[in-house]
Amino acid sequence: MKNVNLDYSILMKNAIKYGDVKGHIPYNDWINNPEAVTLIEHGCQFNCAFCGGSNFAYKNNFFNKSPIFRDPKQVAREIQSAYEVLGAPVFVVGDINQAGPKFYEGLFKEIKEMGIDVPLLTEYFKPPSLEYLQSLSKTFPDFTAEISPESSNQKIRERNSFF
Ligand code: SF4
After folding, report:
1. If you placed Cys at 30, which of 23, 25, 35, 136 could pair as Cys (CB 3.0 to 4.6 Å)?
2. What is the model's pLDDT at position 72?
């Protein structure tokens, strides 16, 4: 995963090559409301009971280390490339704050140096620190922050949490 390059231009070429645009879109309304995606890590720090991407799931099914963070420069390149190809906001999968200051400062530095100006969708598994949010908002004037509690029932959420 560290060396994978998520390249949307290949997806577009394949959609044309095989005459199958519908088969290459990720969700029904994508044509009207497109969103690109990249990811910062392989595996997760946490162990939610239902999740196939959890720390436990990755360590026991794929590699013995989890999470493994991708190269911030590569993530920044993919954000830039996805926006250039699709002109759509980019969803960054994985909690950038949980990756730690070394990672997120490195990522934001690469993004600034590349002059990337993209609406960014970010997600959080725990409330981010104030320092992180300040750094994010200086890098991206247009961003959203998302949480996914999965259930409105506190008892279910408690049973799911094996952090
Ligand atoms: S925080 Fe998200 S990705 Fe991580 S284990 Fe929980 S549901 Fe899965």
Report:
1. 25
2. 96
Q: Tell me: pLDDT of 127 over 90.
A: yes
Tally of domains in the chain = 1
Ligand 1 pocket, Cβ-based, cut-off 6 angstroms:
44, 46-48, 51, 53-54, 125
Our measurement of the distance from residue 163's CA atom to the centroid of its chain's CA atoms, rounded to an integer in Å, reads: 20
Q: Is the pLDDT of residue 23 over 70?
A: yes
Q: Is residue 3 part of a domain?
A: no
Question: Domain range for residue 120?
Answer: 8-160
Q: Which atom of ligand 1 is nearest to the CA of 52?
A: 8
DSSP state of 157: H
Assigned domain for 89 exists:
yes
Does residue 104 surpass a pLDDT of 70?
A: yes
**Residue 2, domain member (yes or no):** no
Taking CA atoms only, the protein residue closest to ligand 1 atom 2 is 125
Q: What is the pTM of this model?
A: 0.88
| Enclosing H/E stretch for 26 | none
Q: What is the CATH number of the domain that holds 150?
A: 3.30.750.210
Q: Which atom of ligand 1 is nearest to the CA of 50?
A: 7
In a domain, 53, yes or no: yes
DSSP assignments along 61-114, one per residue? HT-SS--EEPPHHHHHHHHHHHHHHH-S-EEEEEETTTT-HHHHHHHHHHHHHT
